[in-house]
Amino acid sequence: MRQSPHGVSIHPNAAALIDATAARLITKLVDVQNRRGEVTVVLTGGTAGIGVLAAVAAAPARTAVDWQRVNFWWGDERFVAPGSPERNALAARQAMLTRLGVDQARVHEAASTDSVSTVEEAAAAYAAELAAAAQAEDLAEGFEETDPRLPRFDVLLLGVGPDAHVASLFPEMAGIRTTGETVVAVRDSPKPPSERISLTLEAINTADEVWLTVAGEDKAGAVGLALAGAGPVQVPAAGPRGRSKTRWLIDQAAASQLPEQLLQPEERH
Ligand SMILES: O=C1O[C@H](COP(=O)(O)O)[C@@H](O)[C@H](O)[C@H]1O
Known about the structure:
Layout: E1 2-3, E2 8-11, H1 14-36, E3 39-43, H2 47-58, E4 70-74, E5 76-78, H3 88-95, H4 119-139, E6 155-158, H5 174-177, E7 183-186, E8 196-199, H6 201-204, E9 209-214, H7 220-227, E10 245-251
Parallel strand pairs: 2-10, 3-4, 3-6, 6-9, 9-10
Antiparallel strand pairs: 1-2, 5-8, 7-8
The ligand O=C1O[C@H](COP(=O)(O)O)[C@@H](O)[C@H](O)[C@H]1O binds next to helix 2.
């Protein structure tokens, strides 16, 4: 693994990236639990994101985490039936949640087409659930105030699409431009399914740590542009910033168009 001083870790291939990210996530969850008792993680869909969850569920070190005291949210969800293979939450349940005996009351899945009739209703319900969790935290002691509309997110995982989308915030579309809201409804996603809900960039950037986990050459252009300082409206992956840390966890193929200045001299070709 190569580490750049800019928060970019480059792994030799997708499998190594996924295993290393899973190990890092377990360590992070344990650290926060040791300090505060419970920990909140925001999950992502996508190939690498779900791969990481499967690797966590298979890692011997998983037993170091108290899975009953982990709160789960999602950065985005597809507005489809709950049993649809398109559903990010279903993929996460199959890869990890059902295998670890998590507390179901702490799993905050967005509404599906079975429970509400429009994607706007699903977005509003998710925003309300986030706000209620934030209020409950305020009543508990020891929580540092971040955004009154959102619970504290200790670590927020994101994938990146080949078009540089993160969560369900797509280039040049309304979602990535939205301010003043924590959750947006998306009706015209260029990647199917068309109806989705997503945290806004404003909400994502309340997280203490944001980790962008990306593998594959088809993502190299998006990663290169994001790290070269592109604007988030054109390149949504350029927008996420954790309050304490922003980590880019990528494989060699996804790193192939990284700006030269992000690499140590000995890493330049
Ligand atoms: O649609 C989505 O895509 C992205 C990235 O997915 P990938 O398969 O290209 O890795 C994912 O981060 C997001 O959660 C998901 O809804």
